[in-house]
C-alpha cells in the first residue's frame, strides 16, 4: 500500500471527495468514513492508500479499514457524513445549477471573480448571502448590512438567483432543495464557529467544486486600508486607542507579511468584458466617477442612468486623478479593482478605463454619446475644494460641453449610501474591526504560505 502526501487541505479534500465517489456503493466503507475521519493540523496529510493497486473491492476495504484504524481518530459530530447510506450514493440536483455562498461584504473584484468562476462551472448560478447574525456568529459583524449585501449580489451580471439568510455551512439538504448538484468554493479554507471547514460535508460527498481564489485583494486588506486613513480623520473619534499614530503603527505592524497586489491580466479583463457593441440606433448614456468601495449607492445610480437609454458606458477615473480630486488616501481600491467591480454590474455595457476628468466634445462624438449623466456625488461639490490638489481646477465645470449640447442630465440616487458612509462605519467601530482585522490577516498569511497552483476558470 502506497502513502499519498497532500500539501494542502484543498488537495486533501478534493482527493477524499473522489475516493468517496468511487466507494459510494460500499456501505462498509461509508460506515468507516463516517466514524473515522480527521484532518491533521499540519500542512501535510498522509491519508489515502493508492487504490489503483488493489485487484478487488474486498482487498481495498480490508486495507483501508486497517489504515484508518491505525492512523485516524473519530471526528466530531459536526464533521460527520449523515448516517443515511443514501446521503451521498445518489447525488440529486441539476449538474448545471451551481450554488455558492458568501458574506459579500465590501465587495471587490475578488468577490466578483469568484462569482464569475462559479458561474463558469455550470449554466445557472444560485448565490447564498449570509445574514448579519450568521456572519457575526461565525466571524464578527460585517461592514455592510444584509439588505445592502443582498442588493449587491442581485446586481451582479453572473448571478441568476439569490438565497437570502443562507447558512454559513451549506448542507446536502440545502443543495437538494435548490436543485443544485454542486456547490462551488475558492481554494481557501472557510472555517465556521465550530472550527470546521464550512464545505466539509459537501466535499466528502463529492458535491463541491473548487476554483482559484483571486490573489492580491480581500475584504481584510480593504479594512486595513480604511484603518489607516489620515490622522485628522481618526482623531475625530473617541476610542480606547489614545493616539492615532500609535493605532496606525499597530495596523502597519499587522499588515507586515501580507502586502499583496492585485495582478490584473488581460485574460481576466476579457472574461469580465461584455463584448457587446452598441447598435447604430442605441441611445448611449455616459456616466463617470470614482466608484470606490463599490456599494448600493453606485448601483442605484447606474440603474437609473441605464434607464435613460439602452446602452450604458461608464468612465472610471484613474488613481492619480481620484487622488487629486479627493486627496488623502483615496482611492481605497486601485483602478483595475474599481473597473472590474463596475464591469460586473448588470446595468453596465462598457467601461472606459482611466476616463478623463472633463467630458470633452471628442469623448462625446467618439462614443456617439446621447446623454451625459452626473450622479449624486457632484464633481463640482464645493466641500471637496480643500481636498483637491494638482492640476484639477475646482472652478472648471467638467460638464460644460454636455450642458451646451443640451445632453446633460443629473440624477439623484435613491440610496443615501456613499463611499464616505462606508468609511464612517469603520471609523465609528475601529477597535472592533481592528481586532477582526488582526485575526483574518493571519489567516490570509497562512493561506499564501500553503497554497498550491490552481488554474483560474
From TrEMBL:
**UniProt pathway annotation:** Lipid metabolism; Phospholipid metabolism; phosphatidylethanolamine biosynthesis; phosphatidylethanolamine from ethanolamine: step 2/3
Keyword Transmembrane in annotation: no
Enzyme Commission code: 2.7.7.14
Domain named Cytidyltransferase-like: residues: 99-222, 286-384
- Answer whether the UniProt record assigns the keyword Flavoprotein to this protein: no
- Name the Gene Ontology biological process terms: phosphatidylethanolamine biosynthetic process
Q: Which GO terms describe its molecular function?
A: ethanolamine-phosphate cytidylyltransferase activity
Its protein name is ethanolamine-phosphate cytidylyltransferase
